[in-house]
Every structure is written in C-alpha cells, then in structure tokens.
C-alpha cells in the first residue's frame, strides 16, 4: 500500500522488519540500532543527505587526481554496492510508509491529502429510544457520520415524526446529522437496522456491517483491508417506518382533486372582501368637490414641475371622468333589479357595476348569475373607493358633472325576496 494512496493504516505495529535491511544499508541500521521507532521518516532522508554531502566533498577534493590501483578496484565494487544500497533504501521507505502511515517526502503528503470516508448509519425507531439516544450521542461531533431514517408511520405526519425524535436529541451538542431520506435505503438495499455503510470519496461503497451502530469496529476492519458485506455482528430489527415517498404516492392516490379544487374555489369566494353598506331608505343627492391643495411641489417623473406648493387643483380639470359607477348589493333582489334596469338603459357613459355584497352560500355561482343577468362584468367596491366618494347607502350612482362628482342614493321600496333570489343563484 503506497503513501500516495493514504489508506488508513495500523499504528500499533513497530518497524522491526527494517532489521532485515541492516546488512545492506548502514544508515538504516544506525537509526533502528536501539529497536525504537524513529521520530519521523524525514530523519532517514536527512542522514542519507548528510552522508551523500560528505561523499561529494571527498570526491571534489580528489577530482582530477589518479587513483591508486587498489582504490580503483574498490571504486568499481562501491558502484555495485551503491546500486544495491539505493534499491534497499527505496524498499526501506516503502516499508516505513506501509507500517507507520508516514510519507518519506513532505511534498507528497501536501499534494495527496488523506482520503475521506463517510459513514451512513441506517436507523429506525424500532431500535427503541434508548439505543437511538446512544446512537445520537455517538454521532455527535462526527461530521463524517450521518444517521438516516426511511420514512414515517402509516397515519403519522412529518411534524409528529420530528416530535418523537426531539426529546432524544435534547442537550446533545453539537447535534448529529439526522436525515429523513428513503433513497439511500433503496440504493443500498437496506432491509434491517442498524446497518452501517462506509463509502469512499467517490461515493462507492467500501464496506458494510449490520447489527452495529459504532463506526469504531468498521474503521478497524477497513484498516485491515476488509471490504464488502462484513455480515451481521449484533442484534438487528425490521424497519418500522414506511418509505416516505411510497407513502406520499399512496396518500396522493386517495385524494379527490376535483373535490379539493371545488372546496378551494369556495373558500376563495368566502374570503372575498365585500364592503357592506346599508340600504337607502330615501332618495338623496350629494355633490363632492375633488379640489385639493398641494402641500408641496409635485413633479413629473422627468422632473417637470406639475403643481406648486399651495396651489389648488381639481383633478377633473386635468383628467375628465367619463364613467358612471353603479354601487349595489346583489344579495338584495330589489337592488339587483335596479342595477339590471340601468344595465339595459342606454347611456352615453360606460357603466361600471361595483358590488357591496352577494349571497355567500351561492359562492361563485351566485356571482356568475349576477353577471349573466346584467350581461356585464361586476367588480368589488374597495375601501378606497368607498372613502373617495363618501358612500353611505346603496344603491348609489356616481358620475362627474362639470368639475364635481354627483352621488345619487336611490331609495328601495317593496319587500326583499331572499328566497327567490337565492334559489335562482344557488
């Protein structure tokens, strides 16, 4: 196993095997003469470099001088020994790396960081509160470990599921990583818990074990190069929860979307913000002067001065109001008949119908019925419109005459016919 692979290695072994190399490499035998573990394999390189530096100094001193015959023979033999020594030194570094987990080169360790192993613990509430609490405590402070649940109970909500785990996670700091994700259960074909799966940096499974919730045993197994399915090492349980994706699909299949849509539409009508007004008991006409006095200069978006502070302006002098507004309560059959007469009455002004009320029980059908009778669209009276024209009673007609607004309230006579009106609309 090479250092560049950075596989987790056992540190309990000693480097006694290096004693086999003492006959071939003097510096190695000196380092381990006391049969003690070196402080760092970097020391070996330092000693080798020192010996090499001394040899280079000797060679430079005698460079250019003829060697004696005996030294020439020794030089030839030393070349052979040097080749053997280099081979032994390389083998020594390999053994050091395999036995200690250290690299003999500092630059290599910087370029090849240790590989990250991720542990996924598949759990279920079938394990019981006590064991789940122990699992959460063990996984606290281990970012490489995550705890997965497959889903929730048959008739359980997601909030209820979370509520059952909250007491078990109380006072655990930092909290472990707990996820609800059925997909890994499918990917790894998990049928029982606890099951612990170790994956490498590429996401590929390295090893798994069932019946154990602690990563200690699986780490040790990986250190011994054990991979694959390592079997069952403790008690296991069936998974209590349903796959949440399957449960969602099942619940969706039981839903009546047509009925849900109808109820949603009905609720939307119930929330329509009507502005109810009392019915007019007598005819009344009022005039409203829309003239306003500017409290500050008013400019157009391009900076042009439109109105100076203190100037009085009548909006009708600038923008004519060409509509006729009819405000009425559609739940009153008399007001509905009045609005219908105005809808069929020819007018030189386009008429806009504003509602202050309608039969709530009839829902949108009641509103549709009103538009069919008027053959016009109807709109809701807004609070701003009610305040702008000081509307007090309905039905009322608002239109501009000259530079003022005229508000006419029309008294309703006769009896309201709620039963007939509602039966037609509902």
UniProtKB/TrEMBL annotation:
Pfam families associated with the record: TrbC_Ftype
Name used for this protein in its record: Type-F conjugative transfer system pilin assembly protein
